[in-house]
Amino acid sequence: MSLARTFWLSVVFVLLIVLHFTLRPVLAWRAPIDFLVIALLLVAVRTRPGTAALAGFALGLLVDALTPESFGAGALAMTIVGFGASWLKAAFFADNIALNGIFIFAGKWAFDTIFLVAEHRLQGTDLLVQLLLWSPLAAAGTAVAGLVVLLTVRPVLGAPRS
Amino acid sequence: MRRPARTNPTVDLVLAAACAIAAFVCLILPAGARSGAAAALRTTLVAPLASMQSNAELSRRAFLSHDTALRVVDSITLRSQRLTGVEEENERLRKLLGLASALKWGFVPAEALQGRGLGDDFTVTLSAGKSAGVVPLSPVVTAEGLVGEVERVDKSLSLAIYWPHPDFRVSAMAADGSAFGIVTGHRAEGASKYFLELHSVPLRSILKAGTLIVSSGLGGVYPRGIPIGVVVSEMKTAEGFAKSYLVRPMVSLPNISSVFILTPERGRSGLENIWNTGVNADSVRKVLVAAGDSARPRADSTVKRPVPAPAPAVKKSP
Question: A117 touching B, CB under 8 A?
């Protein structure tokens, strides 16, 4: 990846992080858009799995810093999602909107699942409702927002690493 | 699409494993250590982001509460406007209470029921009638001064005329007793009709602007000492034997809400010290006597001066 693209990727990455801490609280939806997952997947499909895992770990710590009760759960979930997304990106490299949407949807849902299981806060029915209702809804919203971001930044960042 | 070439998968795996282990360690740390680590992040790296999130949430709350806040502000504004009216009314009632304590007896409190109809601006219905002891020709007063007089009396209501009414007449004098005359409504158009005129003032009596005019007590309807108004300026009239003055009334008609109707007995007992107008019966008597003396033609005088008309007993016939 060229230096210019690395620069623009960093800019978009930071912008998405800022959006996560500004736009998301303003919207305050019950199934919120996760801009950190979008940022992670954007980086993951353009970097090596190790780098993606590191980025995931860093993003996860950002989340965990604001939720001390589940400190570490976000880092673990983001690490796994980043690493896995980078490994799996070959399957979604096609410039297909539906496939990219599914990729983001799955990434967000996987993050929620790992996070909720790791933090041990929700159990039983509450956990099932969160995993089977609100997490898919949040994942769908994140997928739509992620597609918008992908289509927007594609001219700047180019196609994912192949 | 072809799969990307991986130069060194082991490095990736090691990195990922290290991150995962670090995250797991964070997860199993004691609560105190986790809180400490989270706090350290919050106060350093995450501080700007936490601040942005806090501001965003505040913005959202402000946005959501805007309409509510607007309604609250409107309500407060409305109440404060009402409060101004209540304060004014309170002030009026306080003054009226002061008047009541000064009068002590011989008055009937009443409410002025405004808005009787178009073209009837100078009459008012009062909420006290014959059953409360009100009789026709009773003076109607407020804490500021004279309002008018009762014209007709029903069992529970009475009808009074204000001072701008064409039938209104009151024998008046300067508060220091230096001049006497008759006060009527000012015959003019527009806002000027809410002034009064002091007629039949002897030519030798000069009243300065600001001189207080009170009822003189002559004529038996209005007791002496009720403030009527203050002199604004002298009026130019065709009368050659007396002066006329424009008088600003003490009582503003729109502010009238509660009034006192004086009983005839109270009027006869005197009101000189009620409004603190400085009217003294003796001094007034002296001035009247002096006016009578000066009205007599002097033997050594070759100039026939116009005889000032004594303040007549003014009251329209009931």
Answer: no
Beta bridge partners of B174: B213
Q: Which residue, chain included where needed, has tokens 């001390």?
A: A68
Contact, B183 vs B219, CB < 8 A?
no
- ipTM of the shown complex: 0.84
Q: Name the 3-class secondary structure at B200.
A: strand
pLDDT tens digits, one per residue of B81-108: 888 888 888 887 888 888 888 888 889 9
- A48 to B6: CB separation less than 8 angstroms, yes or no: yes
List residues bridging with A146 in a β-sheet.
Answer: none
Among 2.40.10.350, 3.30.420.200, 2.30.29.30, 2.40.160.20, name the CATH number for the domain at B107-295.
Answer: 2.40.10.350
Residues 6 or more apart from A87 whose CB is under 8 A from it?
A49
Residue A22 to residue B38, Cβ atoms within 8 A: no
Chains A, B: CB contacts under 8 A, how many? 128
Whether the Cβ atoms of residue B27 and residue A68 lie closer than 8 Å to each other: no
- CA B73/CA A46 separation, integer angstroms: 54
Taking the domains of chain B in order of start, what are their residue ranges? 107-295
- Per residue in A85-107, pLDDT (tens digit) is 998 876 555 667 788 899 999 99
Q: What are phi and psi of B172, to 5 degrees?
A: -135, 170
A17-68 tens-digit pLDDT: 999 999 988 888 888 999 999 999 999 988 889 999 999 999 999 888 888 8
Q: Spell out which residues of chain A touch residue B16, defining contact as CB-CB under 8 Å.
A: 49-50, 53, 79, 83
Say whether A65 and B41 touch across the interface (CB within 8 A): yes
CB-CB under 8 Å, A54 with B15: yes
Q: Which of B3, B8, B19 to mutate to test the interface with A (most CBs of A within 10 A)?
A: B19
- Can you give the pTM of this predicted structure? 0.53
The residue in chain B having the minimum alpha-carbon distance to the alpha carbon of residue A27 is B60
For residue B26, give the chain A residue with the closest CA: A72
Q: Where are the alpha helices (DSSP H) in chain A?
A: 3-27, 35-44, 49-66, 73-88, 97-119, 124-129, 135-157
Chain A residues touching B59 at Cβ < 8 A: 26
Q: How far is B73 from chain A (nearest CA, A)?
A: 24
Closest CA to B164 of B207, B117, B120: B120
Q: Please report, for residues A39, A53, B93, B215, the alpha-carbon distance to residue A19 in angstroms, rounded to integers and kept in the order given.
A: 10, 21, 62, 81
